Amino acid sequence: MLLKLAWRNLWRNKRRTLITMGSVFFAVIFAVNMKAIKEGSYTRIMDNMIGKFVGYVKIQGAGYREEQTLDNSFADGEQLRQSILSDERVAGMVPKIETVSLISSNEFTKVGMVIGTDPELEDEMSGLHGRVREGDYFSNEKAGVLIGIGLAKSLKVGVGDTLVIIGQGFHAVSAAGKYPVDGIIKLGSPDLNKRVVYLPLAECQRLFGMEERLTSYSLRLHQPGAARAVTQSLKEKLPAEVEVMSWNEVMPEIEKMIESDRAEAYVLMTILYMIITFGIFGTVLMMVAERQHEFGVLVAIGMKKRLLATVVSIEVVLIAISGALVGMLGALPTVIYFYLNPIQLGGEMQKMSEDMGFEAVLQYSNDPMIFVNQGLIVAFLACLVAIYPFFKISGMKAIEAMRN
Question: Closest by alpha carbon to 208, among 108, 93, 94, 114?
Protein backbone atom coordinates (compact mmCIF):
# COMPACT_ATOMS: atom_id res chain seq x y z
CA MET A 1 0.00 0.00 0.00
CA LEU A 2 2.80 2.42 0.94
CA LEU A 3 4.65 1.68 -2.30
CA LYS A 4 1.50 2.25 -4.36
CA LEU A 5 0.75 5.48 -2.54
CA ALA A 6 4.31 6.76 -3.00
CA TRP A 7 4.24 5.96 -6.73
CA ARG A 8 0.98 7.87 -7.22
CA ASN A 9 2.32 10.86 -5.30
CA LEU A 10 5.27 11.09 -7.69
CA TRP A 11 3.04 11.83 -10.66
CA ARG A 12 1.15 14.64 -8.98
CA ASN A 13 4.02 16.82 -10.20
CA LYS A 14 5.06 15.07 -13.40
CA ARG A 15 7.47 17.75 -14.58
CA ARG A 16 9.57 17.73 -11.42
CA THR A 17 9.59 13.93 -11.28
CA LEU A 18 10.61 13.56 -14.94
CA ILE A 19 13.38 16.19 -14.66
CA THR A 20 14.86 14.42 -11.62
CA MET A 21 14.58 10.98 -13.25
CA GLY A 22 16.15 12.43 -16.39
CA SER A 23 19.20 13.72 -14.50
CA VAL A 24 19.69 10.29 -12.95
CA PHE A 25 19.09 8.62 -16.34
CA PHE A 26 21.81 10.57 -18.17
CA ALA A 27 24.25 10.32 -15.28
CA VAL A 28 23.89 6.53 -15.15
CA ILE A 29 24.33 6.24 -18.93
CA PHE A 30 27.51 8.31 -18.72
CA ALA A 31 28.83 6.36 -15.72
CA VAL A 32 28.10 2.94 -17.29
CA ASN A 33 29.75 3.89 -20.58
CA MET A 34 32.81 5.34 -18.87
CA LYS A 35 33.20 2.30 -16.63
CA ALA A 36 32.62 -0.12 -19.53
CA ILE A 37 35.23 1.49 -21.77
CA LYS A 38 37.76 1.64 -18.92
CA GLU A 39 37.30 -1.99 -17.87
CA GLY A 40 37.21 -3.12 -21.50
CA SER A 41 40.53 -1.39 -22.15
CA TYR A 42 42.07 -3.02 -19.08
CA THR A 43 40.79 -6.44 -20.16
CA ARG A 44 42.22 -6.02 -23.66
CA ILE A 45 45.59 -4.92 -22.29
CA MET A 46 45.64 -7.85 -19.87
CA ASP A 47 44.61 -10.25 -22.61
CA ASN A 48 47.15 -9.04 -25.20
CA MET A 49 50.10 -8.32 -22.93
CA ILE A 50 49.67 -10.90 -20.18
CA GLY A 51 47.13 -13.62 -20.91
CA LYS A 52 48.46 -14.27 -24.43
CA PHE A 53 52.14 -13.48 -24.00
CA VAL A 54 53.51 -13.46 -20.46
CA GLY A 55 50.97 -15.76 -18.81
CA TYR A 56 49.03 -15.00 -15.64
CA VAL A 57 51.60 -17.05 -13.73
CA LYS A 58 55.23 -17.26 -14.79
CA ILE A 59 57.75 -19.91 -13.68
CA GLN A 60 61.40 -19.04 -14.30
CA GLY A 61 64.81 -20.27 -13.27
CA ALA A 62 66.07 -18.91 -9.95
CA GLY A 63 67.89 -15.64 -10.59
CA TYR A 64 66.48 -15.12 -14.09
CA ARG A 65 64.34 -12.20 -12.97
CA GLU A 66 67.38 -10.22 -11.75
CA GLU A 67 69.72 -11.29 -14.56
CA GLN A 68 67.95 -12.44 -17.71
CA THR A 69 70.64 -14.66 -19.20
CA LEU A 70 70.34 -18.21 -20.46
CA ASP A 71 72.71 -19.31 -17.69
CA ASN A 72 69.81 -18.79 -15.26
CA SER A 73 67.65 -21.32 -17.07
CA PHE A 74 66.34 -24.53 -15.48
CA ALA A 75 66.09 -28.20 -16.44
CA ASP A 76 62.80 -29.20 -18.03
CA GLY A 77 61.32 -32.46 -16.82
CA GLU A 78 58.11 -34.48 -16.74
CA GLN A 79 57.97 -34.52 -12.94
CA LEU A 80 58.15 -30.72 -12.79
CA ARG A 81 55.42 -30.38 -15.40
CA GLN A 82 53.11 -32.78 -13.60
CA SER A 83 53.60 -30.91 -10.32
CA ILE A 84 52.42 -27.73 -12.02
CA LEU A 85 49.50 -29.27 -13.92
CA SER A 86 48.27 -31.09 -10.79
CA ASP A 87 46.76 -27.77 -9.67
CA GLU A 88 43.18 -27.82 -11.00
CA ARG A 89 43.21 -24.05 -11.49
CA VAL A 90 45.93 -24.38 -14.16
CA ALA A 91 44.40 -24.77 -17.64
CA GLY A 92 47.70 -25.34 -19.44
CA MET A 93 51.30 -24.29 -19.76
CA VAL A 94 53.71 -23.26 -22.49
CA PRO A 95 57.45 -24.04 -22.16
CA LYS A 96 59.60 -21.21 -23.50
CA ILE A 97 63.08 -19.91 -24.12
CA GLU A 98 63.26 -16.12 -24.23
CA THR A 99 66.45 -14.27 -25.05
CA VAL A 100 67.73 -11.18 -26.82
CA SER A 101 69.77 -11.59 -30.00
CA LEU A 102 70.78 -9.80 -33.17
CA ILE A 103 68.34 -10.37 -36.05
CA SER A 104 69.82 -9.74 -39.48
CA SER A 105 68.67 -9.68 -43.08
CA ASN A 106 70.74 -8.94 -46.18
CA GLU A 107 70.77 -5.20 -45.51
CA PHE A 108 69.79 -4.49 -41.92
CA THR A 109 70.41 -5.70 -38.36
CA LYS A 110 68.14 -5.15 -35.36
CA VAL A 111 68.16 -6.23 -31.74
CA GLY A 112 65.16 -8.48 -31.19
CA MET A 113 63.58 -10.94 -28.81
CA VAL A 114 63.86 -14.58 -29.84
CA ILE A 115 61.14 -16.78 -28.35
CA GLY A 116 61.48 -20.53 -28.60
CA THR A 117 58.11 -22.19 -28.00
CA ASP A 118 55.98 -25.18 -28.88
CA PRO A 119 53.80 -24.08 -31.84
CA GLU A 120 50.72 -26.06 -30.76
CA LEU A 121 50.82 -25.08 -27.09
CA GLU A 122 51.56 -21.47 -28.01
CA ASP A 123 48.53 -21.37 -30.27
CA GLU A 124 46.33 -22.73 -27.46
CA MET A 125 47.49 -19.94 -25.17
CA SER A 126 47.79 -16.92 -27.44
CA GLY A 127 45.92 -17.84 -30.62
CA LEU A 128 49.16 -17.12 -32.48
CA HIS A 129 48.07 -19.03 -35.57
CA GLY A 130 45.20 -16.57 -36.08
CA ARG A 131 47.62 -13.64 -35.98
CA VAL A 132 49.51 -14.72 -39.10
CA ARG A 133 49.04 -11.99 -41.72
CA GLU A 134 51.29 -13.38 -44.44
CA GLY A 135 52.66 -16.87 -45.09
CA ASP A 136 52.07 -19.93 -42.90
CA TYR A 137 52.25 -20.84 -39.25
CA PHE A 138 55.52 -22.37 -38.07
CA SER A 139 55.82 -25.99 -36.95
CA ASN A 140 58.09 -28.45 -35.16
CA GLU A 141 58.73 -30.31 -38.42
CA LYS A 142 60.88 -27.58 -39.98
CA ALA A 143 63.22 -24.86 -38.74
CA GLY A 144 61.35 -21.77 -39.87
CA VAL A 145 60.46 -18.59 -37.97
CA LEU A 146 57.55 -16.24 -37.44
CA ILE A 147 58.48 -12.56 -37.36
CA GLY A 148 56.57 -9.54 -36.04
CA ILE A 149 55.16 -7.27 -38.75
CA GLY A 150 57.02 -4.23 -37.44
CA LEU A 151 60.36 -6.03 -37.35
CA ALA A 152 59.76 -7.44 -40.85
CA LYS A 153 59.27 -3.89 -42.17
CA SER A 154 62.43 -2.68 -40.43
CA LEU A 155 64.51 -5.53 -41.85
CA LYS A 156 62.70 -5.37 -45.22
CA VAL A 157 62.02 -9.11 -45.33
CA GLY A 158 59.03 -11.10 -46.47
CA VAL A 159 57.81 -14.69 -46.49
CA GLY A 160 60.52 -17.01 -47.84
CA ASP A 161 63.39 -14.62 -47.11
CA THR A 162 66.19 -15.66 -44.76
CA LEU A 163 66.93 -14.31 -41.29
CA VAL A 164 70.20 -14.72 -39.45
CA ILE A 165 70.04 -14.98 -35.65
CA ILE A 166 73.27 -14.24 -33.78
CA GLY A 167 73.52 -14.37 -30.00
CA GLN A 168 75.09 -15.90 -26.92
CA GLY A 169 73.93 -19.31 -25.82
CA PHE A 170 74.03 -21.33 -22.61
CA HIS A 171 77.34 -20.99 -20.74
CA ALA A 172 78.56 -18.40 -23.27
CA VAL A 173 78.58 -20.68 -26.30
CA SER A 174 78.28 -18.91 -29.65
CA ALA A 175 74.85 -19.15 -31.23
CA ALA A 176 74.26 -18.45 -34.93
CA GLY A 177 71.68 -19.79 -37.35
CA LYS A 178 69.95 -19.06 -40.67
CA TYR A 179 66.18 -19.55 -40.90
CA PRO A 180 63.54 -18.99 -43.57
CA VAL A 181 60.60 -16.73 -42.72
CA ASP A 182 57.52 -18.97 -42.63
CA GLY A 183 55.09 -16.21 -41.71
CA ILE A 184 54.61 -12.61 -40.61
CA ILE A 185 52.45 -12.01 -37.55
CA LYS A 186 50.66 -9.03 -36.05
CA LEU A 187 50.40 -9.11 -32.26
CA GLY A 188 48.21 -7.01 -29.99
CA SER A 189 51.19 -4.99 -28.77
CA PRO A 190 52.86 -2.71 -31.33
CA ASP A 191 56.04 -2.84 -29.25
CA LEU A 192 56.26 -6.62 -29.59
CA ASN A 193 55.57 -6.42 -33.31
CA LYS A 194 58.76 -4.39 -33.70
CA ARG A 195 61.08 -6.87 -32.02
CA VAL A 196 59.78 -10.43 -31.74
CA VAL A 197 60.82 -13.60 -33.59
CA TYR A 198 59.26 -17.01 -32.83
CA LEU A 199 61.29 -20.18 -33.32
CA PRO A 200 60.22 -23.82 -32.67
CA LEU A 201 61.32 -24.82 -29.17
CA ALA A 202 63.49 -27.79 -30.15
CA GLU A 203 65.35 -25.73 -32.76
CA CYS A 204 65.79 -22.86 -30.28
CA GLN A 205 67.26 -25.27 -27.71
CA ARG A 206 69.70 -26.57 -30.33
CA LEU A 207 70.64 -23.05 -31.48
CA PHE A 208 71.50 -21.83 -27.98
CA GLY A 209 72.99 -25.11 -26.69
CA MET A 210 70.17 -25.62 -24.18
CA GLU A 211 68.95 -29.16 -24.76
CA GLU A 212 66.26 -30.05 -22.17
CA ARG A 213 66.46 -26.57 -20.62
CA LEU A 214 64.03 -23.65 -20.51
CA THR A 215 63.92 -20.08 -19.28
CA SER A 216 60.23 -20.17 -18.32
CA TYR A 217 56.80 -21.77 -18.26
CA SER A 218 53.87 -19.48 -19.05
CA LEU A 219 50.71 -20.71 -17.35
CA ARG A 220 47.12 -20.41 -18.53
CA LEU A 221 44.49 -20.29 -15.79
CA HIS A 222 40.80 -21.14 -15.83
CA GLN A 223 40.19 -17.98 -13.78
CA PRO A 224 42.74 -15.16 -14.26
CA GLY A 225 41.71 -13.70 -10.91
CA ALA A 226 43.22 -16.75 -9.18
CA ALA A 227 46.77 -15.80 -10.25
CA ARG A 228 47.96 -14.79 -6.76
CA ALA A 229 46.51 -17.89 -5.09
CA VAL A 230 48.01 -20.22 -7.72
CA THR A 231 51.37 -18.47 -7.39
CA GLN A 232 51.42 -18.96 -3.63
CA SER A 233 50.39 -22.62 -3.94
CA LEU A 234 53.09 -23.41 -6.52
CA LYS A 235 55.77 -21.62 -4.51
CA GLU A 236 55.16 -24.05 -1.67
CA LYS A 237 55.49 -27.25 -3.70
CA LEU A 238 57.99 -26.52 -6.49
CA PRO A 239 61.77 -26.91 -6.00
CA ALA A 240 64.02 -23.95 -5.14
CA GLU A 241 65.69 -24.04 -8.58
CA VAL A 242 62.61 -22.32 -10.06
CA GLU A 243 60.92 -19.06 -9.13
CA VAL A 244 57.12 -18.62 -9.33
CA MET A 245 55.66 -15.17 -10.01
CA SER A 246 52.20 -13.81 -10.76
CA TRP A 247 51.77 -11.45 -13.71
CA ASN A 248 51.83 -8.33 -11.52
CA GLU A 249 55.30 -9.28 -10.26
CA VAL A 250 56.56 -9.86 -13.79
CA MET A 251 55.00 -6.66 -15.19
CA PRO A 252 54.32 -4.34 -12.22
CA GLU A 253 54.15 -1.33 -14.53
CA ILE A 254 50.93 -2.68 -16.08
CA GLU A 255 49.29 -3.04 -12.67
CA LYS A 256 50.39 0.45 -11.62
CA MET A 257 49.10 1.94 -14.86
CA ILE A 258 45.70 0.28 -14.41
CA GLU A 259 45.45 1.32 -10.74
CA SER A 260 46.36 4.91 -11.60
CA ASP A 261 43.81 5.06 -14.41
CA ARG A 262 41.11 3.53 -12.19
CA ALA A 263 41.82 6.11 -9.49
CA GLU A 264 41.30 8.88 -12.06
CA ALA A 265 38.01 7.30 -13.14
CA TYR A 266 36.85 7.03 -9.52
CA VAL A 267 37.47 10.77 -9.02
CA LEU A 268 35.39 11.63 -12.10
CA MET A 269 32.59 9.27 -11.07
CA THR A 270 32.60 10.66 -7.53
CA ILE A 271 32.07 14.16 -8.93
CA LEU A 272 29.32 12.82 -11.20
CA TYR A 273 27.47 11.13 -8.35
CA MET A 274 27.83 14.18 -6.13
CA ILE A 275 25.96 16.09 -8.83
CA ILE A 276 23.28 13.38 -8.90
CA THR A 277 22.99 13.50 -5.12
CA PHE A 278 22.54 17.28 -5.02
CA GLY A 279 19.99 17.04 -7.84
CA ILE A 280 17.91 14.50 -5.93
CA PHE A 281 18.33 16.48 -2.72
CA GLY A 282 17.08 19.65 -4.44
CA THR A 283 13.97 17.77 -5.55
CA VAL A 284 13.42 16.53 -1.99
CA LEU A 285 13.72 20.05 -0.56
CA MET A 286 11.08 21.36 -3.00
CA MET A 287 8.86 18.34 -2.40
CA VAL A 288 8.89 18.79 1.37
CA ALA A 289 8.54 22.59 1.24
CA GLU A 290 5.59 22.55 -1.19
CA ARG A 291 3.69 19.92 0.76
CA GLN A 292 4.07 21.32 4.27
CA HIS A 293 0.37 22.22 4.52
CA GLU A 294 -0.65 18.81 3.18
CA PHE A 295 1.59 17.04 5.69
CA GLY A 296 0.22 19.14 8.54
CA VAL A 297 -3.39 18.28 7.63
CA LEU A 298 -2.61 14.56 7.34
CA VAL A 299 -0.94 14.52 10.75
CA ALA A 300 -3.80 16.59 12.27
CA ILE A 301 -6.44 14.07 11.15
CA GLY A 302 -4.50 11.22 12.71
CA MET A 303 -1.91 9.93 10.26
CA LYS A 304 1.25 8.87 12.06
CA LYS A 305 4.31 11.00 11.33
CA ARG A 306 6.54 7.95 10.96
CA LEU A 307 4.20 6.44 8.36
CA LEU A 308 4.03 9.72 6.44
CA ALA A 309 7.82 10.10 6.56
CA THR A 310 8.21 6.56 5.25
CA VAL A 311 5.94 7.27 2.25
CA VAL A 312 7.90 10.41 1.31
CA SER A 313 11.23 8.58 1.71
CA ILE A 314 9.95 5.81 -0.57
CA GLU A 315 9.07 8.47 -3.15
CA VAL A 316 12.68 9.68 -3.16
CA VAL A 317 14.06 6.17 -3.55
CA LEU A 318 11.58 5.39 -6.35
CA ILE A 319 12.63 8.45 -8.34
CA ALA A 320 16.30 7.49 -8.13
CA ILE A 321 15.86 3.78 -8.79
CA SER A 322 13.48 4.38 -11.73
CA GLY A 323 15.97 6.79 -13.31
CA ALA A 324 18.83 4.35 -12.70
CA LEU A 325 16.97 1.36 -14.21
CA VAL A 326 16.01 3.31 -17.34
CA GLY A 327 19.60 4.60 -17.55
CA MET A 328 20.99 1.06 -17.36
CA LEU A 329 18.64 -0.05 -20.14
CA GLY A 330 19.59 3.02 -22.18
CA ALA A 331 23.29 2.24 -21.85
CA LEU A 332 22.89 -1.44 -22.80
CA PRO A 333 22.73 -1.04 -26.63
CA THR A 334 25.84 1.17 -26.69
CA VAL A 335 27.83 -1.20 -24.51
CA ILE A 336 26.87 -4.26 -26.57
CA TYR A 337 27.60 -2.51 -29.88
CA PHE A 338 31.06 -1.29 -28.93
CA TYR A 339 31.87 -4.63 -27.27
CA LEU A 340 31.21 -6.38 -30.58
CA ASN A 341 32.68 -3.53 -32.68
CA PRO A 342 35.77 -2.10 -30.94
CA ILE A 343 36.73 1.50 -31.72
CA GLN A 344 39.85 1.76 -33.86
CA LEU A 345 41.84 4.83 -32.82
CA GLY A 346 43.52 6.97 -35.43
CA GLY A 347 45.76 9.99 -35.75
CA GLU A 348 47.51 11.24 -32.62
CA MET A 349 45.59 8.86 -30.34
CA GLN A 350 46.85 5.87 -32.34
CA LYS A 351 50.43 7.11 -32.24
CA MET A 352 50.21 7.80 -28.51
CA SER A 353 48.81 4.32 -27.78
CA GLU A 354 51.41 2.57 -29.90
CA ASP A 355 54.24 4.60 -28.37
CA MET A 356 53.09 3.29 -24.99
CA GLY A 357 53.17 -0.27 -26.37
CA PHE A 358 49.39 -0.79 -26.50
CA GLU A 359 47.05 -1.70 -29.31
CA ALA A 360 45.21 1.39 -30.62
CA VAL A 361 41.77 -0.09 -29.95
CA LEU A 362 39.05 0.77 -27.44
CA GLN A 363 36.72 -2.08 -26.59
CA TYR A 364 33.86 -1.95 -24.10
CA SER A 365 33.50 -4.53 -21.34
CA ASN A 366 30.27 -6.55 -21.20
CA ASP A 367 30.61 -7.37 -17.51
CA PRO A 368 27.04 -7.25 -16.06
CA MET A 369 28.43 -6.10 -12.71
CA ILE A 370 29.19 -2.71 -14.30
CA PHE A 371 25.43 -2.15 -14.67
CA VAL A 372 24.58 -3.63 -11.29
CA ASN A 373 27.16 -1.52 -9.47
CA GLN A 374 25.89 1.75 -10.93
CA GLY A 375 22.33 0.86 -9.91
CA LEU A 376 23.45 -0.01 -6.38
CA ILE A 377 25.39 3.25 -6.06
CA VAL A 378 22.36 5.32 -7.10
CA ALA A 379 20.09 3.36 -4.74
CA PHE A 380 22.53 3.94 -1.86
CA LEU A 381 22.70 7.68 -2.58
CA ALA A 382 18.90 7.86 -2.75
CA CYS A 383 18.64 6.15 0.63
CA LEU A 384 21.05 8.72 2.08
CA VAL A 385 19.00 11.61 0.68
CA ALA A 386 15.78 9.99 1.94
CA ILE A 387 17.03 10.43 5.51
CA TYR A 388 16.31 14.18 5.29
CA PRO A 389 12.51 14.02 4.64
CA PHE A 390 12.19 11.20 7.16
CA PHE A 391 13.62 13.23 10.02
CA LYS A 392 12.07 16.50 8.77
CA ILE A 393 8.56 15.05 8.83
CA SER A 394 9.14 13.06 12.03
CA GLY A 395 9.97 16.30 13.86
CA MET A 396 7.23 18.37 12.22
CA LYS A 397 4.51 20.17 14.25
CA ALA A 398 1.11 19.89 12.61
CA ILE A 399 -0.17 23.39 13.53
CA GLU A 400 2.96 25.15 12.24
CA ALA A 401 2.91 23.07 9.04
CA MET A 402 -0.74 23.95 8.30
CA ARG A 403 0.07 27.67 8.54
CA ASN A 404 2.50 27.34 5.58
Answer: 114
Amino acid at 106: N
Q: Higher pLDDT residue, 26 or 102? A: 102
- Measured between alpha carbons, how far is 401 from 296 in angstroms, rounded to an integer? 5
Total residues found in the chain within this entry: 404
**Residue 366: Cβ-neighbour burial (10 angstroms; 0-12, 13-18, 19+):** middle
CA dist 210 and 199 (Å) reads 14
- CA–CA gap between residue 123 and residue 119 (Å, rounded): 6
Integer Cα distance of 358 and 251 in angstroms: 14
Instruction: Please write the tens of the pLDDT for every residue from 41-63.
Output: 887 777 777 777 788 899 998 88
Judge residue 82's burial from the number of C-beta atoms within 10 Å of its C-beta, 0-12 exposed, 13-18 middle, 19 or more buried.
exposed
Q: Please give the single-letter amino acid code of residue 388.
A: Y
**Averaged over 188-193, what is the pLDDT?**
78
Q: What is the pLDDT of residue 21?
A: 82
pTM exceeds 0.90: no
Residue 240 pLDDT greater than 80, yes or no: yes
- 3-class SS of residue 8: helix
Contact 170, 73 (CB under 8 A): yes
DSSP H helical ranges for 195-251: 201-207, 227-237, 247-250
Q: How far apart (Å, rounded) are the C-alpha atoms in residues 140 and 359?
A: 30
Identify any residues that bridge with 221 across adjacent strands, giving them in sequence order. 90
Residues 6+ away with beta carbon under 8 Å from 180 = 144, 145, 160, 161, 162, 163
Torsion over CA: 275, 277, 279, 285 (sign): negative
From CA 188, how far away is CA 193, in angstroms rounded? Answer: 8
Phi, psi of 93 (to 5 degrees): -150, 150
**Residues 120-130: b if buried by 16+ CB within 10 A, e if exposed:** ebbbbbbebbe
CA distance linking residue 260 with residue 265, whole number of Å: 9
Q: Which of 35-39, 142-146, 173-177, 293-297 has the lowest mean pLDDT?
A: 293-297
3-state class percentages of the chain: helix first, strand second, coil last, to nearest 5: 60, 20, 20
Tell me, what's the pLDDT at 355? 55
